Amino acid sequence: MSALVYLIPIALLLGLGGLAACLWAARAGQFDDLDGAASRILFDDPETNRRTRK
Amino acid sequence: MTTLALPRSLAPAAQDALCAHCGAAAPAGSGFCCTGCEAAYALVNRLGLGSYYGRRALDPDRPPPRPDPLAAIDPTAFAEAAGEGQWTLDLAVHGLHCAACVWLIETMLAADPAITRARLNATTARLSLAWTGPREKAAQLAAQVGALGYRVAPIAASDMRADREESRELLHAMVVAGFAAANVMLLSVSVWAGAAGEMGSSTRDLFHWLSAAITLPALLYAGRPFARSAWAALRIGRTNMDVPISIGVALATAVSLFETLNGGAHAYFESATMLVFFLLVGRYLDRRARGQARSAVMHFLSLARSPARRILSDGSSETVAPEALRPGDLVQVASGEKLPADGVLLDGESSIDTAVLTGEALPKAARQGDLLHAGTVNLGAPLRLRVTALGDQTLVGRIATLVSEAEGGRAAYRSIAERVARGYAPTVHALAALSFAGWVLLGGADWRMAMLIAAAVLIITCPCALALAVPASGLVAASRLARGGVLLKSATALERLAEVDTIVFDKTGTLTLGRPRLVRDGGFAEADLAAAAELAAVSRHPLSRALVEATAAASPAEGVAEHAGQGLSLGGTRLGSRLFCGIEDDDGAVGPELWLTRPAHEPVRFRFEDALRPDAVEAVAALRASGYRLVLLSGDRAPSVAAVAGAVGISDWQSALLPAAKAAWIERARAEGRRVLMVGDGLNDAPALAAAHASLAPAHAADATSGAADAVFQGERLGAVPVLLATAKAAGRVARQNLVFALAYNALAVPLAIAGFVTPLIAALAMSSSSLAVVGNALRLNGSGRRA
After folding, report:
1. Does B201 touch chain A (CB under 8 A)?
2. Both B125 and B82 in a single domain?
């Protein structure tokens, strides 16, 4: 049972990390255009586009 | 499976090639249907983006709009400063048909070094731009996108900000609830597994404490949407599904906390968090489905927002947003622009396209001193207007007010979920209270055990399946309809559509396409048509546009004079009305026509008709076969209404009806107990749309009309109507099945809970399985749609 002392904090920290990443992605607008994101990967991305897709 | 249909426009025998840019029919050999498409094709290839044509997926039923240099707008007045010489602008882009369009537009704009942001959201069709340099660059950017065939319109960033804030809050709440549910479940499963084995009570208590530490902050944050809605309902003395949800979650958490404090064996933290998580998922998806419809409608609203050119006292002019105008201002309206306000025509004469008000395709002549209305389009020479009314005070604004008043009646509609909720909440609360009292008084249990049992009753009855039952089926139906081009705006639209027994159609723009088309009756040669199109290419008159549309590449001739309300002339050549061309009236006129007279040539007549939607006859026949009573109510003259009614096969029709008369007809039908679906597009239909039990409008409809409608359909096909009604019925069936299932599950589980057999493990299992069953049943709707 003593393994719980470090296993549980590790599990919770991993979970919190996932939560933080999810919230960051939502705040950064990554869920704003789910339809477009699905098909964007199918197209080449010319150098110029990287500058303007913010 | 759908079969690949050939574009209907291929049907005319003489045409067998497709335009390389827009995919519409083009004369053999030319490769393009019009000069605009030729220019767009050249532009795309010049930029090195020719691979676009290989990548896109064209829907033959919904061809992209043609490039239209006359439709260009100047959005400069809507650009907002973003500091350090930066400007930002949001544009609604109309005519996107696949992901390749997004790529084409973004890549084209990105080639300009002044542009710092060019991001097109495919879900909302909003293009977000930022650039450095002069503010006036906005016009050039809009023209660049317009030259490819897309229509752009400025949107005020604030229009959608509140909406986006709300869905973002839901998303955040969902993410937090998901995190909490997963971690608490992890701890709970360990407790349940350990209860049979060697887990000591101190380890169990530790796990309960950890669960509490995760649950409490998570629920305080993620439960807000439910608590707010429940509180709002209670405050006005009503109850909704959120009331039992909020009470159930709050009580389960409180009891579990109490048990944890006292080292009890059972805690319900995982049930509480899972319940909130499931419900938030349902709510978020529901919001997304309807958000699409909302943004589509907002686009059409924004297409109507055109900047105004105000004339200052010193004679110079400035471009301002329409909100900045004041009564008494002088406004200049260029040819092809929308009038920004109601006003009096100061001088000269022009022809005005009033389709937005009346639904009629042909323009009206306007003379000095005439009162003109906001939203109508100036088709003639530039005109000057003295503003008399703005915003809500304009005719359009007043009709919109009328519509929102008529909608008050519909807001009272109780959805089936609300009707169930009204009886459900008091029942389960009474049951919980009774089982508490029963165990204490009759069962001889101590109050702590009785409290646990009461909490179990509340959790097991917590309407997870019930609250998901209706939204799940509605969501699946809505997304299936969206793929077919029908967008649902109202949450209860599906239920109301399923109850419809009478369908009322408007004529122009609803059964017909609402714009004139050249009739190839053999009365003219292709050379005549080409000669006429050269003149017509400079004009915005609908008949001229129809003439140009019927030809291959027509290049506008130099020096054409336009005579408002009469016709066009170039030297001795005249194109216009019978009177203008000096032709004697022979009473042979059927519908609109144009005459072409040239020196040393016989006069030539071009006839036009307002064509039926391509599948109007089949759609009407399908509706009649399904047993609906069909009625045609039109504001048009009797002969043309009779012709259309005969063509589609509607025997019950009325003509020359004023907007109020249409609404009155619907009120009468309602009084007779009929449930009416109104299908219409003009602003004159808006009161009728609002008065009807359910309503549908084509997506091109006027602002207030699409605002009043429950659903809008895109494209030229009327077949959307029978599909919509069938889907609504199927969704209603599934929703009822789900409700019956959810209630049956409760009937089974509640006695167990009252008897005290329900442990947290059983509660969690029962809740998840019933929710999954309900969602799975709703997904069947998707499958049946694919087979059809």
Report:
1. no
2. yes
- Please say if B353 is a catalytic residue: no
| Side-chain-facing half-sphere of B92: CA atoms under 13 Å | 22
Instruction: Check whether residue B650 and residue B534 sit in a common domain.
Output: no
CA distance linking residue B554 with residue B533, whole number of Å:
6
Integer Cα distance of B355 and B373 in angstroms: 11
Name the band, by pLDDT with cuts 50, 70 and 90, for residue B552: low
Residue B713 belongs to a domain with what CATH number? 3.40.50.1000
Residue B70 clears pLDDT 80, i.e. is over it: no
| Sign for the pseudo-dihedral over CA of B572, B576, B580, B586 | positive
Facing residue for A36 by CB, picked from B109, B123, B179: B123
Which own/partner pairs from B4-9 qualify as long-range (CB within 8 Å, at least 24 positions apart)? B4/B60, B5/B60, B5/B61, B6/B60, B7/B60, B7/B61, B7/B63, B8/B60, B8/B61, B8/B614, B9/B63
Q: Which amino acid is at B14?
A: A
pLDDT band at B1 (very low <50, low <70, confident <90, very high): very low
Q: Which residue has the higher pLDDT, B756 or B65?
A: B756
pLDDT (tens digit per residue) in B118-174: 888 887 778 888 999 888 888 888 888 888 888 787 776 665 666 777 888 889 999
Residue from B639, B648, B659 nearest B718 by CA? B648
Range of the domain at B583: 515-610
What would the pLDDT profile of B401-416 be if each residue is shown by its tens digit?
A: 666 665 555 555 667 7
Q: Are B511 and B612 in contact (CB under 8 A)?
A: yes
Pairs across A and B, CB distance < 8 A: 85
Query: Per the CB < 8 Å rule, is B115 touching A52?
Result: yes
At B556 the three-state DSSP class reads: coil
Residue of B nearest to A50 (CA): B110
The continuous run of DSSP H or E covering B633 comes out as strand B629-633
- By CA distance, what is A27's nearest residue in B? B168
Q: Among B116, B124, B200, whose Cβ lies nearest the Cβ of A52?
A: B116
Length of chain A: 54
Q: In chain A, which residue's Cα lies nearest the Cα of B163?
A: A32
Is A43 in contact with B55 (Cβ distance < 8 A)? yes
Q: Among B141, B138, B145, B146, which Cα is nearest to B70's?
A: B146
Residue ranges of chain A whose CB lies within 8 Å of a chain B CB: 1, 4, 8, 11-12, 15-16, 18-19, 22-23, 26-27, 31-36, 39-40, 42-43, 46, 48-49, 51-54
Interface touch B175/A35, C-beta < 8 Å = no
CB contact under 8 A, A46 and B107: yes
Count of domains forming chain B:
4
Q: B338: which DSSP letter?
A: B
As a dihedral over the C-alpha atoms of residue B26, residue B31, residue B34, residue B36, rounded to 10 degrees, the angle is 140
- The residue among B344, B373, B377 whose CA lies nearest residue B362 is B377
Q: What is the mean pLDDT of residues A26-35?
A: 80
| Residue that terminates a domain, selected from B345, B365, B393 | B393
Domain boundaries, chain A: 1-37
Among B9, B40, B41, B39, smallest CA distance to B24 is for B9
How far is B297 from B286, CA to CA, in rounded Å? 17
Q: Which of B506, B615, B681, B685 is catalytic?
A: B506
The ipTM assigned to this model is: 0.86
Same domain, B528 and B487: no
Cβ-nearest to A12 among B109, B118, B183: B183
Q: Judge contact between B641 and B650, C-beta under 8 A.
A: no
